[in-house]
Amino acid sequence: xxxCLKFVVLLLLLSSRSCDGLQFxxxxxxxxxxxxxxxxxxxxxxxxxxxxxxxxxKLTTSSFRIVDAKESSAGPSCKHLTFLNFSCHCVIFSTxxxxxxxxxxEGNECDAFRDQPTRLETFSQLVYKDEFGxxxxxxxTISDFPRFAHRGIxxxxxxxxxxxxxxxxxxxxxxxxxxNVFHWHIVDDQSFPYLSRTFPQLSQKGAYHPYTHVYTPxxxxxxxxFARLRGIRVVPxxxxxxxxxxxxxxxxxxxxxxxxxxxxxxxxxxxxxILNTTYDFMTQFFKEISTVFPDAYIxxxxxxxxxxxxxxxxxxxKFMEQQGFGQDYSKLxxxxxxxxxxxxxxxxxGYMIWQEVFDNGVxxxxxxxxxxxxxxxxxxxxxxxxxxGYTTILSAPWYLDYISYGQDWQKYYxxxxxxxxxxxxxxxxxxxxxxxLWGEYVDATNLTPRLWPRASAVAERLWSAxxxxxxxxxxxxxxxxxxxxxxxxxxxxxxxxxxxxHEYKGV
Length: 507
Ligand SMILES: *[C@@H]1O[C@H](CO)[C@@H](O)[C@H](O)[C@H]1NC(C)=O
Ligand SMILES: *[C@@H]1O[C@H](CO)[C@@H](O)[C@H](O)[C@H]1NC(C)=O
Ligand SMILES: *[C@@H]1O[C@H](CO)[C@@H](O)[C@H](O)[C@H]1NC(C)=O
Ligand SMILES: *[C@@H]1O[C@H](CO)[C@@H](O)[C@H](O)[C@H]1NC(C)=O
Description:
Elements: E1 8-15, H1 26-32, E2 49-58, E3 66-68, E4 96-103, H2 116-126, E5 127-129, E6 135-143, E7 150-156, H3 164-176, E8 181-185, H4 201-206, H5 217-229, E9 233-237, H6 245-250, E10 255-260, E11 263-271, H7 276-292, E12 297-299, H8 308-312, H9 314-323, H10 329-345, E13 350-354, H11 355-359, E14 369-372, H12 378-387, E15 391-394, H13 409-413, H14 424-428, E16 430-437, H15 447-451, H16 454-463, H17 471-487
Parallel strand pairs: 3-4, 7-8, 7-16, 8-9, 12-13, 13-14, 14-15, 15-16
Antiparallel strand pairs: 1-4, 2-6, 5-6, 10-11
The chain binds 2-acetamido-2-deoxy-beta-D-glucopyranose (4 copies).
One 2-acetamido-2-deoxy-beta-D-glucopyranose binds near residues 23, 24 and 56.
């Protein structure tokens, strides 16, 4: 996957003298009052190689056109340029030529279109307005590819329902930051907003509201297509056997009845791992999920299973005895997960799982992606998971639902995903990471400002070269990048005392 994401963008401007008359100075001086200007302009995340020049060109319809280089394997698609506010049809070649040159795809196994949005994003970041409001671009040569293939954002639509509009706006912002995986933590204990065709009662009973707080098949399709057009994969997470309280409301006997003494207490625990009906349900459910979501991976969760309820249940105790598990309930968890993984394998999907599943010694398919999230001994865990030969993604240092006073983006920025002790082979197994925005204290009112531009710090760490670590240059570019988001009507919160040329106007 890493190889097919590689690309090269060469921005080449050829022009007559008549084009470079206008300079970008007044606005620049004002901006310096709040942030220094970087020699890399407002590029974010920083490309692998970039050479900016002082030769500037007016980006006007009379002097500019976009052409496909002969070498290009995927020509620019006009509709992706509409955010620059000129249409391809009226861009006429006269005095200058802009060549967007895409090449260096290693292998044809993936959709060449996938990287197109990131190239166009770089192009748009080079465009700036002069004092008359005319769009300019400087002659620039860029050679670029992402350091890590998996650059994700996790959103949680269970703790709070997230309206589709918010999800789409977030996908747009992800594209601006070159994230390419939307990890949709779609259901959890609190609610089940996913409307299943096979088991409609799951959302009918388990959503906060059966009609207003659900994702219909059409909604899900829209999210997937909107993401695809921006080069973003959608990986859904259906977390079991814990985190499933909402599932139990619409699916009788799925959860384990907890006992108080010798009688059921009326409460329910994790998925009941000892019933055949549980596996019949999972087979049908994941058959549906595997057709609804086209991505090659499904996230199966597997984190934070509370054993208290299993321990209280006499039928479970008996089963433990029969299986020879003793009092080790993690063996029961593994028994369940193993059967689930076998079920999902028959759908021809790969799976991602939270680190506990690996820690508990469950037998995993070799292509399993282990998601490391527990802080504290993260380096040790990365060492262990990659040492066992599994592909890994990192989230532990990037839990953006935690907030604090000050510039905490720097903390996220300073993370080095490969800092753990390991061989070259082990490090190659780390395919990237995800910033997680858990939803306990997040809904549509605060999602965007809480996530952006803090997640932008993670975006650069996962995209740019390892040695891109200069905090003050990052601050300068990120300030400008944040203002660009604001100019595009995205309420990204400020980094520090400052102003933007175009402030957010609210709605
Ligand atoms: C673009 O070129 C102008 C001169 O035409 C120069 O003042 C400015 O610094 C350049 N911008 C960048 C980001 O290199
Ligand atoms: C796009 O260009 C048109 C015509 O030049 C102008 O009226 C409009 O305000 C521009 N829109 C934006 C978002 O810059
Ligand atoms: C559950 O399935 C197993 C294996 O297919 C079978 O041996 C067992 O009898 C089934 N149990 C019940 C209660 O149907
Ligand atoms: C790193 O891992 C290797 C192999 O597991 C081990 O021999 C070595 O002592 C470790 N080094 C550190 C600094 O932990």
